[in-house]
TrEMBL record:
Lineage of the organism: Bacteria, Pseudomonadati, Bacteroidota, Chitinophagia, Chitinophagales
Organism: Chitinophaga agrisoli
Gene Ontology, cellular component aspect: cytosol
Alphabetized GO MF terms: unfolded protein binding
PANTHER family, A to Z: CHAPERONE PROTEIN SKP
This protein's name: OmpH family outer membrane protein
Protein family membership: Belongs to the Skp family.
Pfam families xref list: OmpH
Extent of the signal sequence: 1-24
Gene Ontology biological-process annotations: protein stabilization
Alphabetic keyword roster: Signal
InterPro entries: Chaperone_Skp, Skp_dom_sf
Amino acid sequence: MRKKCTIVLLFFSLTVLTATRSHAQAKIAYINMQELILSMPEAKLAYDSLQRFEKSLNADGQTLLTELQKKMVEFNKNEPTMSASMKEIKHKELETAQVSLEQYRTHMEQQLSNREQVLTAPIIAKAKKAVADLVTEGGYACVLDNSKDIVVAANCDDLLGAAKKKLGIK
C-alpha cells in the first residue's frame, strides 16, 4: 500500500512539475503589423502605384462630370424656349448622364479596392512569413498584433525590430 502511494505521489509530482515547466516556457510576443508593413519598401511602391491609378480614374470621372455640367448649363439656358416634349427628352438625358456618373464612381471604387488587394496581398504575406519565422526561431507560443489596440503586458517581447531586420528594413 505504501509503495502504491509513493508511486502515485511521484507520478503526481512529475505531472505538476511538467505542467509548471511547460507553462513557464510559453513565450508571448507582440508586433505592430501595420507599422511593419508600412515600413516595407514594397508598401511605398504599392501606395504610389495605387495613387497613380486613382488619379487616372479620377481624371476619367472628371470628364464625365464636366460633360454633365455642360449639359445642365445648356438645358437651363434653353429651357424657357423648349417645348414640353423637348424638355422631357433633355431631362431624361440629364438623368441618364447622372446615373452613368454614379455607376462610374461605384466602378472606380471597386477597381481601386481590387487593385489595392492585388498590390498589398504579397506584401502582407511577406510580413506574415517573416513574423512566422521569428515565432519559430524564438519559440513563441503566441504573437499579438498591437496595431489593433490590444493591451500588451510588460513581459512580452516586441518583434518589430527583429522583423524589420529579417526583412532588411532599417
